[in-house]
Amino acid sequence: MRQERIDLDSSVGYVLKEAASALRLAMEDALRPLGMTITHYSCLELLAQRPGLSNSELARGTFVTRQSMNTLLQQLERDGIVSRPATPTSGRVLPTTLTDAGRRQREQASAAVREVELRMTRDLDEAGRAAAFRLLRGMVAALRDQPSTDATD
Q: Tens of pLDDT along 16-39?
């Protein structure tokens, strides 16, 4: 049986992983002075855009376990960054919302993360950024065996 060899210099998957790693490090560096982790920031950003998400929805959206998200939410609630009702509004779900302090914290973090994104794409014009976004979305859809949501131009 012949073994297939992946040429790392031309492997899209390898370069994508390298880019993801570099992005993660740059985001960590940008968020550290604000006292935040990427998961903390991601949670705030999701809640700003989709108020009322549950622990499970936030965990899925930030790529962590429900247990990890629950621990983070408890800390954010103690710090006055998020609020959750004392009792579930329906079933066992405790919808989470940002407080004023949480919104201010998210604004600072979003600005820092946006600077990282701009640095990452500084050599691309608007059309190049749009093309990169379409290509990455297409790769995600292909790996999830979903139809691409991008209409052909």
A: 999 999 999 999 999 999 999 999
Identity of residue 71:
T
Question: The pTM is what?
Answer: 0.83
Please give the single-letter amino acid code of residue 106. Answer: R
The backbone torsions φ and ψ at residue 98, rounded to the nearest 5 degrees and listed phi first, read -80, 145
What dihedral do alpha carbons 35, 79, 40, 64 form, nearest 10°? 140
Q: What percent of the chain has pLDDT over 90?
A: 78
Q: Is the separation of the CB atoms in 34 and 105 below 8 Å?
A: yes
Q: Is the pLDDT of residue 7 over 70?
A: yes
Helix, strand, coil percentages in the chain from 3-state DSSP, rounded to 5: 60, 5, 35
Contact between 112 and 34 under an 8 Å Cβ cutoff? The reply is yes
Task: Name the E strands within the chain.
Answer: 82-83, 97-98
Which residues are bridge partners to 98 per DSSP? 82
